[in-house]
Amino acid sequence: MQRPYKIALVGNPNSGKSSLFNVLTGLHQKVGNFPGVTVDKKTGKCHISETLAAEIIDLPGTYSLYPKSEDEKVTYEVLINQNNEDQPDLVVVIADASNLKRNLLFCSQIMDLKIPVIIALTMNDIARKKGINIDLEGLERRMGVPVVAINPRKNKGITHLKKVIANTALHQNSPLRDSFISSETLVGKWIGEIKDIAGTNTNYHALHVACNYMELSYLNAAQRIQIGASLDIHGFQKTKIQGEEIMKRYEKIGGIMKQCVVEESPLQKLMRSERVDKVLLHPIWGNVLLLIVLVLLFQSIFWLAEYPMNWVEHLFGFVSNGFDKMLPDSFLKDLFINGILAGISGIAVFIPQIMILFGFITILEDSGYMARISFLTDRLMRSVGLNGRSVMPLISGMACAVPAIMAARTIQNKKERLITIMVTPLMSCSARLPVYTILIGLVIPDKSFLFFKLQGLVLMGLYLLGFVMALIVAKVMSFVVKIKEKTYFLMELPVYRSPRWKNVGITMIEKAKIFVTDAGKIIMIISLLLWVLASFGPLEKRKKVKEDFAVAVQKNPEQKATLTRKMKTEKLEHSFAGIAGKTIEPVIKPLGFDWKIGIALITSFAAREVFVGTMATLYSVEENQADLTLREKMKMAKNEYGKPVYTLATGLSLLIFYVFAMQCMSTFAIVKRETRSWKIPLIQFMYMLLLAYGSSFLVYQIFS
Ligand SMILES: Nc1nc2c(ncn2[C@@H]2O[C@H](COP(=O)(O)OP(=O)(O)OP(=O)(O)O)[C@@H](O)[C@H]2O)c(=O)[nH]1
Ligand SMILES: [Mg+2]
User: Fold this and answer.
1) What is the Å distance from ligand 2's center to 195 Cα?
2) 259 CA to middle of ligand 1, Å?
3) What is the model's pTM?
4) Minimal CA–CA distance to 693: which of 596, 610, 601, 581?
């Protein structure tokens, strides 16, 4: 098969690469208004013209061809590694017109790799507002590559861009243009030696080999030794040369800018964003507003979701009641209603809340406020040994720890990145939300306090608790982790933009879908398995329960209903699942948990949201009252002394356990992948488990 024509989208962070990618491919790659949204490469297909079908590659944003963080390395690898399967035939540099100088620097480096380049200028609307006028034709002539103005947010200029791409592809083999700056004059003629040893196309590529030869995977050991020797002979100094290169480039770009870019009133009028930031980044008002935003978020999770949640709950109650009446009693009916349907309804109820949470986070990201949150919290973060960049993973950890841990790639400092990864799962993710909601509904009264719902406040308290603990653990770890590296926080604040509501809507729907399918799959499998384990067990014991029941009913026929329930509970106790729960009961008793909660703890080490499915399955195996909701069943649950199981102490203790414990296989897997070690995720798992156990113990002892 012929290799497809590959087009890579590269450029500075937050310049609109993923937006363009989405327009070209029709996919929904994540777009957000802060630097560092994309941290991994993603490919899609696009029909550029009638004859040209291309593969488009979206890449993480990069400031220069000297990568400093893990996400920048992904882009570097694609551009520099000659054996990389995604080596592009054409690079489209997406350059922010309102910030042209720095964008052109990176562009000029790629041009010197002699890969065909097209410059796509975005943010022209913002540049215009700032009073910046760019002479496109002049820029094109002086840079020596095509320049196209586009606005991927509004779908403008895309047809023209496609035409230019098609045209460039046609003339792929035309003679190479001159270098932007000459590597030979920069380094010396000897760079040709490196070019020959490594077999690179250009001297500039050879310079990169000289800088990074120990890390480039496509060089073999012999080549490395030769390169090392050659560099020694010529006294090659990496940082000095890099500094000189950047200066030379800026010198030339400065000249080009002078000729092609006119800035009205360089004394600059205050942009709207800057005026807004006077308030939003104010040392006092900024923090007050941040707090208000957070309170609003948690309150709305309860307020807005209440009605839709009730509808879903009743719908499922109605459906399973209907099936209960319709189907003849049998083993299969039991499996269907108490296994499958109970499992699905257990999670479907939480769709409204998940959607609200993700909608809110997307609005924060899209508007540009998220970047301000990192700015506002930088001081706090630094005081515990992290930096402002760590906030982004922590906040996206509220949605899910898996992408959040990947987002830590943007942190340059190794130690800070490691600690951020270590503490991110302490942030309460959306999978905990179902557990929190159910338990809060059970043990916290539905009252208002001042203007706020008490339940919403407790929910916020749990999120806050996770966050505070993340800070404490980070501080402790900053003493333990022995990596020394200088650290600084540099983050561009993007201009505010109104969120694109379509994007918000799509994200909400997509996330709900993912939640239902991904979580749904695990929950279904585990619920089914659990249903089997809860319905079967060692025969003798269960036979005895039945016999005892028959005798008791004969003695007191009027108490048949109570006796039936007792018999079912005893049967559950003697099922395989019951035996497992009973086995760990001594360990969890000091936390206020009974054997049924024990079963839920075991199953939810696969994923936390399984808790709800487990409870649904256990209580329906026992109760078999299809029209009751899970919450009602749990509320009615009694222990052996006839007291309610879910008291305030048990509820709080269980909540705390779920705040701290790392019950998620996907998180474990992603930490292993990102840190390339087993040790780190294992340490993480253990410290979180100990933290959970200790805190639950304390809470239960205090409240009971
Ligand atoms: N005003 C304006 N906004 C734009 C334009 N192009 C993109 N945006 C917005 O810019 C923001 C960043 O867009 P992304 O596509 O995520 O940028 P990216 O280059 O992929 O960013 P990283 O993945 O972080 O490197 C989003 O809020 C877009 O809606 C444009 O031409 N004009
Ligand atoms: Mg992106």
Assistant:
1) 33
2) 27
3) 0.83
4) 601
